[in-house]
Amino acid sequence: QVQAVQSGGGLVQAGGSLRLSCAASGSIYSINAMGWYRQAPGKQRELVATITSGGATNYADSVKGRFTISRDNAKNTVYLQMNSLKPEDTAVYYCNAGVYSGSLRYLEVWGQGTLVTVSS
Fold first, then answer.
1. What is the rounded distance in angstroms from the CA atom of residue 66 to the CA atom of residue 69?
2. Which residues are bridge partners to 117 per DSSP?
3. By the 8 A CB rule, do 30 and 53 touch?
4. Which among 93, 39, 101, 43 has a CA at the least distance from the CA of 69?
5. What is the rounded CA–CA span in Å between residue 58 and residue 35?
6. Which of 58, 62, 74, 111 is most buried, by the most CB atoms less than 10 A from its CB?
């Protein structure tokens, strides 16, 4: 069984910073892409950023230049550094990982979600 556990998040004023972490654990052979998604109240879940196993990154236009995704392959962990936060960044943030398990099954693993609230 493979799971992803998130940490970080909370309440911050506009212009502030937060860092999210997400650690995958369990029977893991390898992890492909990892990413962060978010879902604001009344809206659909949207992509925030992704990172491949080789470190190539992709960002939503709305967060480019403010958010940075990174990963530590040795720790099976992905991070999201969020700077210059805006009230419109308020959402529940979810991490995602494409995992090959120890039995070489491919799994899409999601974290439990973390609320980020940005006050104006």
1. 10
2. 11
3. yes
4. 93
5. 9
6. 111
What is the maximum span of the chain, computed from C-alpha positions, in angstroms? 48
pLDDT of the residue at 104: 87
**What averages of pLDDT result for each successive group of 10 residues across the chain (120 residues)?**
96 98 97 97 96 97 98 97 98 97 93 97
**Residue pair 4/95 in contact by the 8 Å Cβ criterion:** yes
How many Å separate Cα 2 from the centre of its chain? 16
Q: Which residues of 84-99 are buried (b: 16+ CB within 10 A; e: fewer)?
A: ebeeebbbbbbbbbbb
- Cβ–Cβ < 8 Å for 32, 100: yes
| Residue 43: predicted pLDDT | 96
